[in-house]
Amino acid sequence: MNRDNMPKDSQQDQPVVFVVDDDRSVRDALEDLLASVGLGSMLFASSQEFLQAERPDAPACLVLDVRMPGLSGLDFQDELARQGLHIPIVFITAHGDIPMSVRAMKGGAIEFLTKPFRDQDLLDAIQQGIARDRIRRQEEAVRQDLRRRYASLNQGERAVMDLVIKGLLNKQIAGMLDVSEITVKVRRGRVMRKIGAQSLADLVRFAERIHEADRGWRD
C-alpha cells in the first residue's frame, strides 16, 4: 500500500513510513513488507529527494540506509536535527560497525539494524518509532495551543496574570501597576476567559505549563 495511492482523508489519519535507500531492490522489498502489515510508505533514492518531497502531516518513522552516495545516513540524521525535523529513525545497513551504531543511537535513533536482520525486528522498531512520533505530535499540539492562548493576552492582561499567579490581591496589583482596582478585575476576568481557567489553581497550572513549553521550544 504505497502512500501515494491512499485517499487524502485517510492519509491524515494513517501513519507513514519513509524509506531512504539508494538501492531500488531494497526500497521495493521494504515497500512490500510494510504493505503486508498495512503500513503506507513513501520511497526515496536519496536524502535530497526526501527533503524536496512534499510529505504528509501524519505520524511517521524513517527507515534510513547508513551508506549512501553523497550525504550518508548518519550525516543526514544530523541534518534533520539541524532543520528541526524530529522524525524517529531506524537505521539499516549491510556494513555497520560499533562506532556507527553508537553515533546513531546518541543521535536519537530508534534502532540500528545490520543485515541480515529479521523482518519482525524491523517492523517492531518501526512501530516503536511511529508510537514515539504520535506522542511527540500530541505534545506539540498541546504546546501550540498553550502558545496560542497566551498570545491572545495583551500586555496589560499578561502583567495582571503574572501578579495574580504570585498570589497578590487585586488591590495590591492595582497599586503595583498604577491602575484602578476595577481595571485589574476586568483584566483578570479577560485573562481567565482567554486562558480557559475556572479558578486560580487552573491559572497557576496554565502558567506552569507555559513555562515548561517555553523550555521545550528553546531546547
From TrEMBL:
Q: InterPro entries attached here?
A: CheY-like_superfamily, Sig_transdc_resp-reg_C-effctor, Sig_transdc_resp-reg_receiver, Tscrpt_reg_LuxR_C, WH-like_DNA-bd_sf
Task: Show the Pfam families listed in the entry.
Answer: GerE (PF00196), Response_reg (PF00072)
Sequence ranges assigned to domain HTH luxR-type in this UniProt record: 146-211
Kindly give the Gene3D superfamilies that the UniProt entry links to this protein. 3.40.50.2300, Winged helix-like DNA-binding domain superfamily/Winged helix DNA-binding domain
Tell me where on the tree of life, at the top rank, the source sits: Bacteria
User: What CDD domains does the database record attribute to this sequence?
Assistant: LuxR_C_like (cd06170), REC_FixJ (cd17537)
Give every Response regulatory domain span: 16-130
Task: Tell me which UniProt keywords the record has, alphabetically.
Answer: DNA-binding, Phosphoprotein, Transcription, Transcription regulation, Two-component regulatory system
Report the record's Gene Ontology biological process terms.
phosphorelay signal transduction system; regulation of DNA-templated transcription
The Gene Ontology terms for molecular function here are: DNA binding
Where, per the database record, does this protein carry 4-aspartylphosphate?
D65
Instruction: Please state what the protein is called.
Output: DNA-binding response regulator
